[in-house]
Every structure is written in C-alpha cells, then in structure tokens.
Design goal:
The complex is a heterodimer of chains A (125) and B (107). By secondary structure, chain A is an all-beta fold. Chain A has no helices and 11 strands. Chain A is 0% helix and 49% strand. In chain A, the strands form 2 sheets. In chain A, strands 2, 4, 5, 6, 9, 10 and 11 form a 7-stranded mixed beta sheet that branches. In chain A, a hairpin with a 5-residue loop joins β4 and β5. Chain A is globular. In chain B, strands 2, 4, 5, 6, 9, 10 and 11 form a 7-stranded mixed beta sheet that branches. In chain B, β9 and β10 form a beta hairpin. The chains are: A mainly beta (125), B mainly beta (107).
Chain lengths: 125, 107
C-alpha cells in the first residue's frame, strides 16, 4: 500500500527558502495515472493547493505562489520536493504531500486519495 | 480561479441524525468535485470524487450529489467519528481550489 512521508526543517527564517521532500514507499512514482502534489493548511485557515508534478517533470502551480514555488521530482529516489522562496510568517502551517489522480483521465480515482501525515513548518526568527 | 463556497460554516447535529453540507462553485465545474474529511491532527481523507463516487473504504452513509455548480454531501446517520471538518475541492480548472470547510459538531 502506497505511503507518503514528508521531511524537512520544521523552522525556517523569514526571507529564506522552505524545502520539503516527500518520499514514497509501497508504490511507484512513475505511474502514468497520477500527479504528485503539495497542499498546506495555515493556522486557522482551510486547505490551500500549492502545486503538483507529473513523473515526467510537468508541473502546475497555484498562481498565488507561482513566483516563489518550485516542485521537482527524483524518480530514482522515489521522491518529489517542494521549494518555497522568500518565506514570511504567512507561510507557516502544516504541509502535506499527496497523490493526485484528478488531472489524469486514466487514473482509477480522481481527487487526492493518498496523503502524507503532514509536517509542520514555522517561519520565525 | 474558481471560488468554492461551503455552507453552513458550522453544522450542529446529534449522533444518528442526517447531516447535509453544501458546496457551490463560482462557475460550472461539471462533476469534477471531491469531498474530504479532516480530523484534528490527522491528514485529510478523500470521501467522494467525481461528485458522487465514494472513495475506497468509505462507508455508504456518505453520499455526494450534484453537478455544474451546486453540490451536496450527505451523511445519513452521523457517527461519533464523523464529527470533523469537511472540505469540497474542484478539479475542473487549474488551480485546484478548496472551499473554506464546514465544521460538523455534536449538538
């Protein structure tokens, strides 16, 4: 059964870059049926879609973050990563990685059906 | 971007009663809608996709309906484990967007 696990620093200083990695176990990152994405939840707020990536490297980003965000994939390591530049306190929150079948017609399940447990990132000095 | 509006913000329901949650899209999204359940301290869980298809392992007391711009999630008989926040999410157009959520609490 596919599992996702986020990893990365829990504390980032303002203006620096937030970097997280999501590692897969029990499944293939080169599946042609899924994108791999990032979602976050800031304190007291709902869920925000950050972006996603296909195993080929094709990406989609939230326009509200597009100037600061970069998602990459490392198929040999069965992982994908998020970089968010120039962070502020508003970027504090819980970050989740997900498997997303919504953008692929052949996916058995549309929507984000596998989630990591989430990792808390605090932006502070 | 498509704005998703959920109502009510909070739904107070007694265990065993029916709960009905609404989600409205700012434009036609066909049936490209998912519902998620989010318990505190846990990752969200996919309940429904394509507006009305239950995800794997989801009890049949959860049902989704609607198309176009108006959608409903119904929980036929609320169990203790169902008290949580529920989000709708559209995947008809980039960027994917979520509603602000409906908190289902014990009455």
């Amino acid at each position: 059964q596919l599992q996702l696990q986020e990893s990365g620093p829990g504390l980032v200083k303002p203006s620096e870059t937030l970097s997280l990695t999501c590692s897969l176990s029990g499944g293939s990152i080169t599946s042609d049926s899924y994108y791999w994405g990032w979602i976050r939840q800031s304190p007291g707020r709902g869920l925000e879609w950050i972006g996603n990536i296909y195993y080929t490297g094709s990406t989609n980003y939230n326009p509200s973050l597009k100037s600061r965000v970069y998602i990459s994939v490392a198929t040999s390591k069965k992982s994908f990563s998020l970089s968010l530049r120039a962070v502020t306190a508003a970027d504090t929150g819980v970050y989740y990685c997900v498997r997303d079948g919504a953008a692929v017609v052949t996916a058995p399940t549309a929507g984000m059906d596998v989630w990591g447990k989430g990792t808390t990132v605090i932006v502070s000095t | 971007e498509i704005v998703m509006t959920q109502s009510p913000a909070t739904l107070s329901v007694s265990p065993g009663e029916r709960g009905t949650l609404s989600c409205r899209a700012s434009q036609n999204i066909n049936s490209n809608l998912a519902w998620y359940q989010h318990q505190p301290g846990q990752a969200p869980r996919l309940l429904i996709y394509d507006a009305s298809t239950r995800a794997s392992g989801i009890p049949d007391r959860f049902s989704g309906s609607g198309s176009g711009a108006e959608f409903t999630l119904t929980i036929s008989s609320l169990q203790s484990e169902d008290f949580a926040v529920y989000y709708c999410q559209q995947y008809n157009n980039w960027p994917w967007t979520f509603g602000l959520g409906t908190k289902v609490e014990i009455k």
